[in-house]
Amino acid sequence: QLKHLFGIPSNARGFFQTVYSLSAKITQFSAGDLVLGGIAIGFLLALRQITKIPVKEDTAGGRFLKKFLWYVSLSRNALIVLITSTVAYRWSNSGEDEVPFKLSGHVKAGIPGFELPIHNVHVGNETIPYFEVVKDLGSSLILVPLVAILANVSIAKAFTAGKIVDASQEMIALGLCNIFGSCFSAMPTCGAFTRSAVSHSSGVRTPLAGMYSAIMTLLALSLLTPYFYFIPKTTLAAVLIVSVAFMVSNL
């Protein structure tokens, strides 16, 4: 996420490639992205601490204030995205200078239609037979599911506070998600430390959050995609960096 935080264009993948690419292009950083990202990180850290403000809870007003601060702290990720997106939207429509930080850009609305995943692939004017695609994937047909299983189990262990993780349950859930998702042209599905960290830092406590996230995602893809254009990339990077940093510190 550092490339988005600094606003440096880079196609590098992996930790070492990213570090090398950023080091080589550090002079190309965007001041707008860096400033906004720094403000976003400061905002997130500040709201994380507001629940520690001493409040007398012996009155109704005190209890309300304590609860209000707690809700504000939990909503910090959504708040910073909403605030910075609003700023970007107003700036873009002001007719003045170009927005000084990179935006997420166009997001296609809706979800792909249902179709069985076993079919030929069309790339430009070329049609690639299904079994040729399978052949090209090679060892990744085994490695991708294996990495996905390891990632899911590792994430589950990171958030169970020492409790036993049912690996079989994780594999069944992961398999069903990928089988069903493949019928909608979905990418291979597995857990992610960054998303799990964001959920954890937002106060998630039960798997019901997954259903809530799915419903909100479908609604967002149907109704809100025009507004995703204005979400600054550096804001999303700040949310992920802060969330993962505290997740690692709590391991």
Automatic annotation (TrEMBL):
Residues 1-247 form the SLC26A/SulP transporter domain. One of its GO terms (biological process) is transmembrane transport. It is a multi-pass membrane protein. Its main location: membrane. The chain crosses the membrane at residues 26-47, 68-91, 137-159, 171-194, 206-223. It is found in: Membrane. The keyword Hydrolase does not apply. Keywords: Membrane, Transmembrane, Transmembrane helix. This is Sodium-independent sulfate anion transporter.
